[in-house]
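Appendix B, example 12.
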Amino acid sequence: MNVTFKKLHPHIGAEVSPLDLRQIHDRETLDALVGGMDEHGVLVFRDQPFTDAEQLAFAERFGGPLHKKPGIAALAKNRFDNDAIADIGNINEDGGIRAADDRKRAYSLANRLWHTDASFQDPPGRYSTLSARVIPPVGADTEFADMQAAYDDLDAAMKKQIEGLHVHHSIAYSRQLLGFDFSPAELEKLKGAVHPLVHVNPRTGRRSLYLAAHATRVIEMALPEGRLLLRDLTEHATQRQYVYRHAWKDRDLVIWDNQASMHRSTPFEDARYPRELRRITTIDVEVPAYA
């Protein structure tokens, strides 16, 4: 099947020619999509009327084993009864809009920080698929930052400084930045993981910064210097020239490479308008499990 990619931004993001991803099973097309991910970091597919089961099946075909240990699982049961489906929205268990003081809403506010999915796990997140089910009429966009282009534009001295460094990631840390309180038992479940600061794509050899709001410290550096370095790199990598802003349409499906990008949600009137998106993330394994 012929697959084409229309660039949406000079660095990151492309819209893919019309495909029904529910029907894509052949290795040739899946490999073409992986190639598109390697080049563009974020792929946009229009008119993808996924059910949860269909989205789960496609994500696993495309990216391999599913991430099933989300941070929010430490707080409460998933309303879909499947921890591989992340509830990216403002709907409560009764189908209404979450109240301003809802603990899950407070936890989800950290999605407005620049982050990568599942960097707090080992192995970390690889590809995320986000399916738009209900979109409010007031925006609620998602921004993506190209961490490959950001790395490429670092000067030689900075590239040399950060090569070989490792960073601890904790999802509790990103929530605590916003004043979210965890119980000791919850913190025990959210100890985090350590990953290299510079990621190398095994297929292309391109390097990218591996950052997130979950990044707590640089292992090889004193705490203040390490946190300043992470702050400076994040400020560099999220300059406007590296950022694509996606305006959601109903039934959009967006896939991004967590090893090559950061993302964040943008605010909207979430006490007034319902918003439902379902995210499924695969873990970073060498070979996808094609079906």
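The chain has eight helices and 15 strands. The radius of gyration is 18 Å.
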